Amino acid sequence: AGAHQALDVLFTPSDHNYDGGNATVYIDVDPAPLTVTGITAANKTYDGGPTATLSTGSAALFGVVSGDAANVNLSTAGAVGTFDTKNVGTAKTVTVSGLTISGTAAGNYTLTQPTTTADITTRPITVAAATNTKGYDGTTSAAATPTYTSGSLASGDAATLTETYGSRNAGTALNLIPAINFTSGSASDYSIILTNDTTGVITARPITVTADAGQTRVYGASDPTFAYTITSGGPLATGDSLSGALNRDAGVGVGTYAITKGTLALSSNYALTFVPANFSITKATPVITFTSTA
């Protein structure tokens, strides 16, 4: 193969009325194309990269001209396989590179690097929630961090692990539910098992309510609505509120009476402590009306 190759042409006529002759012509001889058969790629579990493992033991040249077989040799020593992408898929294209040919007739050929197919399967990982204890705050948030109990992320991938309670309410033996959020890489390249923890605890939140001091009424009037203030543990969680009302010890005469908890209540998410105060009924000011008899 090569450009401007000399070719001697001998002309021998079959008709004796013509003289024979010869001439030199120049032609371009293109290298013959060769392909390779018999190379396969192994399926693999997702590892974050596109490298494929090749099997070259059955590799063979196809297209060698008869008579050149002993003078064209295939070398697979530098063969490299590369998937079209690093991601999970079936029958993915694997491009082979690095094959070379040698021998005295190798210059007459060009080698086309072959392709094959293989699968990339999902990478299995297991993420387990960790135990967590907190005081009631009206949310399902948990401070503990789940862990990988089986498998690992592929090189170059990253994810954050978090967990939440299955319920916002106080209690024991609560479900803690793990979650994984990929910041690099994709969840679709993994087979993910999420394992709950069932030892979560949310303790009741201590709240102290104190009756306001100095509440009074005048003898003969009606009792006011008794006021109170959350003096410890407040404010209440979003959406929560106290129900009911304070009361006082019985009595209608002038004097001092203890303000009691009455029906004031919170849900079981709170441990309510009540601090009483005194309520006073003060003397009324008499009104004297004079009536004329004249």
Tell me what you see in this structure.
The protein is an all-beta fold. Helices cover 0% and strands 50% of the residues. The chain has no helices and 28 strands. It has strands spanning 2-11, 21-29, 32-37, 40-41, 44-45, 51-52, 54-55, 60-62, 73-75, 80-83, 89-97, 100-102, 109-111, 115-121, 123-128, 133-135, 147-150, 158-165, 171-184, 190-195, 197-203, 205-211, 215-218, 228-232, 247-248, 255-260, 270-275, 278-282. The strands form 9 sheets. It has a 5-stranded mixed β-sheet with strand order 5-14-11-10-6, with no helix packed on it. A 4-stranded mixed β-sheet has the order 16-21-19-18, with no helix packed on it. Strand 18 (158-165) and strand 19 (171-184) form a beta hairpin. It is rod-shaped, with a radius of gyration of 46 Å. It starts with a strand and ends in a 12-residue tail after the last strand. The relative contact order is 0.12. The model has no long low-confidence stretch (mean pLDDT 93).
Helix residue percentage: under 10%
- CA distance, first residue to last residue: 153 Å
Strand content is over 45%
Largest sheet: 5 strands, mixed
Strand order of the largest sheet: 5-14-11-10-6
Instruction: Please state the structural category.
Output: mainly beta
For the secondary structure, the number of strands is 28
Q: Give the overall average pLDDT.
A: 93
Number of helices: 0
Q: Looking at the structure, what is the overall shape?
A: rod-shaped
- The residue ranges in which pLDDT falls below 50 over 5 or more consecutive positions are none
Order of helices and strands: EEEEEEEEEEEEEEEEEEEEEEEEEEEE
Give the radius of gyration: 46 Å
